[in-house]
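User: My instructor asked us to take a sequence, write out its structure as tokens, and then describe one feature of it. I'm not sure where to start. Here is the sequence I was given:
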Amino acid sequence: MNRPKVTYIVGAFDRPASLPCCLWSLKVQTDPDFEVIVADNSHTLDLQEEHRKIVDSMRDVRFSHRNTAFYPVPGWDCYWSAEWIVKNGHARGDWLCLPNDDSYYVPIFQEAMLEAATKRGWKFVYSDMLYDRRIGGRYQKLDVAPWRGAIDKTGFLIHRDAWIGFPNKASEKVASTCDGEMANELVEQRKVRHGKVPEILVVHN
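Assistant: Let's start with the prediction itself. The structure tokens for your sequence are:
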């Protein structure tokens, strides 16, 4: 199998009813060159097994399941588990995307993002999102920008050459803005070429 263009590392956590929608939205991408790794942070082996069966039900060799809940990192945290997947060589794609199980993508997400990045030489590309009720108490467009509080890890692609991991990850169960801090560092300090596809291509619940 050739190296995939994109590795999607899907953070899964104790909610198997959410996972299939996310996975099927990836399966129907118009650009088929990808792999999907479910990084499973569930608390119990029963939930882990339920997630594994969902992945198996995709009947697609591009989809796999990894138990990341019991490694010597804060397994409950999607940022730590995504980093673990990359650090340990499981992600083979040229690009990385980091959904959670409560997110889903329009079918042209990968195609549109990679087309824009290739044309413009970007290593970090993002799009607007339909975001959940954390902003203003209702679903609305998140006008994405590469800084803390204005970007979510669900809605960008980052090239492996630009990957730095997530700075200042939480060591306890608190809300984290480390995806925004990563964007800040990439753009402000490392001067990574970046840009935005001006469409709503992602929903994050």
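For the description part of your assignment, you could build on this observation: The CA atoms of residues 49 and 174 lie 27 Å apart. Try explaining in your own words what that tells you about the chain.
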